[in-house]
Each structure stands twice: as structure tokens, then as C-alpha cells.
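Hi L.,

You mentioned the student needs an example of a multi-chain input paired with its predicted structure. This one should do, with 336 residues in total across all chains.
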Amino acid sequence: MKVFAAFLMTCALLPAFADTVPTEHVVVLPNAQLATRPSPPPGFIPPPLNPKGIRLETRQLSDGVYALMSNTPFADNAGFIVGESAVLVIDSHFNGEMGQQIIDAVRAVSDLPIRYLLNTNAFGDHVFGNHVFPDDTLIVAHQSTIDSLSISTVEGIAQTMRGTVNGDLSVFSGVKLRLPDVGFDTVWSVDLGGRIVEMHWFGGGMSPHDSVVYLPKEKIAWTANLIFGAGTIPWARSGGVADYRATLSKLADTISPNTIVSGHGEITSGDAIGRYLSYLDEILEQARQAALNDTTVEDFVDTAIIDPKYAIEPALKPLMTGFHRWNLQAAYQETR
Ligand SMILES: [Zn+2]
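Structure written out for the whole complex:
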């Protein structure tokens, strides 16, 4: 546990990388072995996140509960909850323009003050709209998100996100880094007046910072990058496939959402948790077998395809194939 904490600390001290191809660097793995982060496998493409032309569609999921869904297959989604006394927003999206789009969507259904804004991770596409929210909006995030953002700059994050926006760095113009005000450890919750909202951190997954927003009464969760939308598989971007599995297992033991609004992709059901768990189990087992058979990592990864039972959303096939190969590579290296 101590070693795992050290791993998280290390990750927290790394700059806030974006959803993009990482540069080669050394990370401390939970098993305390030094390892070099793998280069992207063949066929890997960065997630397409360019916010230009993105419209967020408001979808009411329950009384006072709204998802904000991007009109392209993988650009960021967000959401907001309206209680009797206040509004809470989940993620501020890519830049000031997108943040303002969220505020306008809230204003179309409520005049109540936006008291809370939750940041689900430290990636620019989830936090770069923070600065357009009112000064008295309290921004809440997992402490590791805050630690990571504290040592980052907009320019640095923009550079690492270059691949996700087709090199068009103009999408970052005007962005000011506004840090969250409140950091939590494992759980934070608030009563908005007749509506309880929880925010959980179950451990590292896609990144070390992934937090999950949950409405216990409505059984709706915002899972950000930890569980993507319908017809997807996970992306163990930070490595740690076994840790990712442990995090999802803890999630499954703690909350039981019927509906999942992901940070990217279409709304899905709580069944996605089980699908993600079995996917991670399978690739860990396949990696063990490959290592036992002395299959090289290249042979294991280069032409791998996703089992059709995962019913990948057709528009996301190339992206998910890249994620799959990335995951296999990470799982293989964990077995060494
Ligand atoms: Zn994301």
C-alpha cells in the first residue's frame, strides 16, 4: 500500500498530461521496479478532442439531473445537477468558450447560483473552462488533480495535447489555469437541497487522478475517463492494468449506478463496469500467457484486434484498436 501511495505521489508530481501520446519518461510502478513508459503501439491514434464546432446537447436524466453530451463521438461530455438551493457542474470542458456553453446550458433551465464545479481529472479538456465560472463557484477535485495542475502551465498542457486537436493550438487561446479550491482524499459530498452528490476517488485508472461523481438516490454516475461510453474499452494510459482493475473493483463494491455518463462517448448502463472488469482480466491473462510462451511484445501487440463480444461502436473502432494495443503492451510489461 505504501508503495502504491508512492506511485501515486510520483504521478501527482508529473505535469498534467493530456489525453495524448506521452513522451518517453521513467515512472515508478507499483511493484517498485523502474520502467520506461512504452512508446505508442502501431496504429495508435490520439483521441480526437478538438472542441471547434462542438455543441453540447442537454439531456435530462432525472429530476434536476442533466447530462451535457458532445455532438461528436469522442469529444468531452459534462453535466450539471440542480438542487433546491444551488447548481453543481461536472467538468468545465476544453476552454473558455466551452465553459461558457456549459454555463448557458445551466441558465436555460435554472437561475440558481452555480455553487460547485467538480473537476474529474487533471487533463486540459476537463479543466480548461474553469476560469469562466463565477468567482464564488467552489471548484472541487481530488488532491492529486490539484497537485498535478499546480506544477503545470497552459502552454505545457497544450503542447502535450497537440495530437488530440490536429495540431491546432489556437483552441487554447484565452485559457487561464484556475486551480480547484478544495481537494479531497477518498470521498466528498454535498447536499444541493433535496439532491445529494458524491465525488469518489477509488484509485488510479486511466490516469492517477480519475474521480467519479455519483448520485446515490438516482443511481447515476459520471465516470469521466475511468469508464468511457457505450461500445468502448478502457485505456490504461498510465500503465498499471492490474491497478486499474483494482480501482474498478472498488468502484463496483462502493456504488451501483444504473446509468453512466462518461467523459467521452455515449451514455451507457452500469453493466459497463462488469464489461471493463472482464476485459482487464482477459488482457492480463493473455499477457501472462504471451510471456510464458516467450511471445515478443511486438508479436503480441502489433496486429491484435478487440474481441467482437465488446461490440465496439463503429465510429470508434480505430481509436479503440489503438487503446487495445496500448493496454496489451502495458499488461505485457507488467508481467515482466
Ligand atoms: Zn478526458
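You could point out the following to them. Residues 19, 76, 123, 125-126, 225, 263-264 surround zinc ion (CB under 6 Å). Residues 2-335 form a domain with the Metallo-beta-lactamase; Chain A fold (CATH 3.60.15.10).

Best wishes,
N.
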